[in-house]
Amino acid sequence: MIKTPHILMNEPDTFVRVVETIPLQVAPMSAAGLMADGVDQNWMGLAVAAALMLTVFLMLARLKKAARGLREASADSSQNFAATVEIPPYIDTTQLASVADGTDPSDAMARLNQVWERAQQKVETNPLYNPNITERLARDALDIDRLFCTGKLSKSLPKLKPDALERFAAAAETLGAGELSGLIDEARALTIRGHSAQMREHARKGPEWAAFRKDIADLEARLVKANCHNGHTGRLVLLADAYVGQIASEAA
Fold first, then answer.
1. Minimal CA–CA distance to 193: which of 216, 171, 170?
2. CA 198 – CA 189 distance, rounded (Å)
3. What Å distances lie between residue 228 and 91, 97, 142, CA to CA?
4. Residues 100/232, Cβ–Cβ less than 8 Å
């Protein structure tokens, strides 16, 4: 309501005060309007909060980059090429099989698991830590045994990337298991074939996919055979355990 005063003159010396009331029509604000009004009032606070979060994220990224730069800069720039590349101690891989003789595969697997678990603990303590070649070989030997030699190749192969298969083949070659390395290269070729556009054009129940599954089964049988040592599977695990043991003895 708005009250407006009016003065009326009745007599020469007499004034009459009249108050006229005028109703003020105000349209009710809709829920959408109220929400928009609330956003208009709070947008500044939201913008400030977003800016603070972005600033914190950028600061953390810069700190991580700076720490990595300090670690790299800590090395003497006058070092030669060989000193800047990770070169493991020389191990005569032709003797690893004889070193592994008499070792229980389950014991070897337990030791390799301990090596990789310690590496993971180092990473948790220091996110900038990179597992060394011994720790990576322990991990790769365990993964190769699990993925290729336990009857699960048809399930694991579609999930593996070609670069991971290249790493596995290199690990087997380092451990002196050339036959296994070559078979893993075949697995890489099968992976590329399985993801190819040509195979996607064929029906999954057709003859092309039946032949593809047969190739995987045949490869797995050869992998299991190549991974046998003295009649038992786990040859690569035994070789990796012997390799890690030789590295430890060299470092002692």
1. 216
2. 14
3. 22, 11, 15
4. no
Helix 105-125 / helix 235-251 crossing angle, nearest 10 deg: 60
Structure tokens at 2: 């708005």
Cut 0.90: pTM above it: no
pLDDT band at 245 (very low <50, low <70, confident <90, very high): confident
Q: Would you tell me how many other CB atoms lie within 10 Å of the CB of residue 97?
A: 16
Quickly list H helices, 149-234.
153-156, 162-174, 178-194, 197-200, 207-226
With both helix axes pointing from N to C terminus, report the angle between 178-194 and 133-148 in degrees, rounded to the nearest 10: 60
Instruction: Identify the H or E element spanning 251.
Output: helix 235-251
Q: Looking at residue 104, what DSSP letter applies? A: -
The secondary structure of residue 75, as a DSSP letter, is S
| Predicted local confidence at residue 49, as pLDDT | 74
The confidence band for 15, taking pLDDT boundaries of 50, 70 and 90, is: very low
Residue 79 DSSP class: -
> Angle, to 10 degrees, between the axis of helix 207-226 and the axis of helix 178-194?
160
